[in-house]
Amino acid sequence: MLKNTTLWLIALAPMPNALAQTVPPPVAASEVFPPEQIGHALSAPTPQVGHTAPSEANAPKDDGQWTMPAKNYASTRFSSLTEITPANVKGLAPVFSFSLAVNKGQEAAPIVADNVMYVVTAYPNYVYALDLTKPGAPLKWKFAPKPLPASQGMACCDVVNRGGTVSDGKYIFNTLDGQTIALDAKSGSPVWRTRLGNINIGETITMAPTVARGRVYVGNSGGELGVRGWIAALDENTGKLLWKAYNTGPDADVKIGPHFKPFYPSDRGTDLGVKSWPADAWKIGGGNVWGWVTYDNELDTLYYGSGNPGPWNAEQRPGDNKWTTGIFARDPATGDARWYYQMNPHDEHDYDGVNEQLLLDLPFGGRMHKVLIHMDRNGYVYVIDRTNGQVLSADPFGPVNTSRGVDLQTGRLLVNPAKETKVGREVNDICPTASGAKDWNPTSFSPETGLLYIPHENMCMDWTNMQVSYIVGTPYVGANVHMKPGPGGHRGELTAWDPVNRKAAWIVKENFPIWSGTMATAGDLVFYGSMDGWFKAVDARTGKSLWQYKVDSGVISQPVSYRGPDGHQYVAVLSGVGGWSGAIVSGPVDARDGSAALGMINVMSDLPKYTTAGGTLYVFALPH
Amino acid sequence: MYSPCRTEAVVVAVVCLTACHASHRGVGAAPVLGADAAVVTSAFTPGLDHSVSTIDPRAAKYYDNAAAVNEGMRLFGQYNCSGCHSNGGGGMGPSLMDDEWIYGSRLEQIHHTLVEGRPNGMPSWGGKVPDEQLWEIAAYVRSMSLPQTLAAQNGATPSQTPAPVPRAVDQDSGWSPPPGTTNDYTSLTKGP
To answer: What was the ipTM of the complex prediction?
Structure first.
């Protein structure tokens, strides 16, 4: 394993600043389970039967644009451009930058279509269109949606936005106060706006919409405020609601009917979304859709993960709490559920199931399978047969002691009773932490190397449950959490994961959790950003650090690459630290309270020594 | 008594105020001050009028009241205040244990925030819970940043041993320069 030791040691050097409390000592390595003990697969690796790659239907030939955050339906975040290589990347330099005028966490991907770049900011969700055909990429138009200011107080974890999408001449995005808006891509004037969320009940929208075959898919946030999760489909041309499916409650609301064929018996039955909860608790039970919705253009199926059940205090909601923290496959036209798999039945640690899913063809058990790969908050890489919802393998990629693996006969997570959370008792050294071995920030995949580039965390926590009452529009959490670094003390890792042979190819350690996505290129490079403000390129085959550039603030966004009007390759990224992990910098938070920002401050109190709030678009290219 | 410098500043302020007011009503240009026009000065201050006499009499019983801050602490958890403000360090809502007060630090101002809510997401609690409880929560919130409360912090969870709020903290002038500041701005008005 290659370790990025030099850079890491520099980052750890003490700096004269008394702003922060001390970051607690790391959890001992002996506290977590060895990966080989808890990783399981239905059969031994058979790499010889084929090459891992997305299908052409889900990853068509690269046109040099970047029209959706995930790059393509397969969600590979892979650019086939090859101008920038390990040999020349050291010459990569900024060609222009653009202030976003918002100093909150910037989580979006810049979008490039028809030589225009589109960026949506954190609240107040400005949209900028920049003309890439002119020197300096001047502003073509700006749109200010003016979301309700009170929505800021309803967002659990900074006022972020994870991006928009260009489709059929429109730029489509969501606002914090619960609107989906389609703008004319040329003029920036609204084509339609649809209000889907109600901030008065704590509902916000932070996710990036997914657009496919004339439909826009949107889900809500609010799992920390007792908001019932849903996904909705809108008509792309009119914004009209086509269907809406909830993730808790009666089968009719969840759109579970005769076409629902979950792989495991534990997901079969009537109205499990009611029966697996105490009376009426499903009405305020979370299961939100604030992460990634993936459309399968090959199987015409929609996949997405549901968020954590509410409240965090699991003792108030005995039962499996369906259909939270699981992956649904649905019919895109009707919303009808096809299958479901629950990663974390009766979740006790805030392990939302909303992280990205990559759609690949992968050799397994002696033949090629159509799989969905999901890196869950609970620390496992799930390789799932996406035709039926069966888990083929589940292996840990981060520190895990909340479970002892996944039972591949029943599909059920083998919960470790020692790390179950309790009222009135602090349970210590729970790994991974509430934000997960990995949060929302997406993985990329290179068909050239066959590796997944997983940007993630190495953090654990102490947790005490507290009784909590539901009060509409206020947090419904019921937990006192203090996070801490995982084994080794570094808080982030970039893991290059081989999904066929089920092991890490290399790991780069980072001082802070990696809260940005990764982007891989056919030039054999992987790009990502660090929370202390470095935008970096590493060798896709070895993890060797090749290039880095210090931007104005920490990076928690999604890098992209595109071919400019001049035919050259460009790389774009937003700076602007924030989000849950960066609240200590972008939010009005005090480092003396380790429980602040849902326990995140305890482990991030030193971040203000390294970066300040910001918000800037940077675009890089080789000299030409 | 007034130096030319000081008078000029006040005149500019008055003209500005008048102009703004006039434009609101759609009336034309502001009236021109003649040389003999009286310059009116008053106790007009930025922010709160900090004179002692303006303390809301309803706040009186919550000063120097240990029971009030302890009850406030309990209610702060019960009503999910801690969900946004944690144990004073903030999160979804702003930190309450630092010395920055967006809407003022006096008990009556904190109480007002609780009653009315605030535009960036603070809910309005007026009429929904007994008013006395809102005063107790206000006292606890005010206590969070008191030196005694901060000094009592043990570990990474603050505000668990709230000190009573001394009446004196609401009687000061709101801001005074840090120790060591040369505070002689009044001397500038004496002229050469």
So the answer is: 0.90
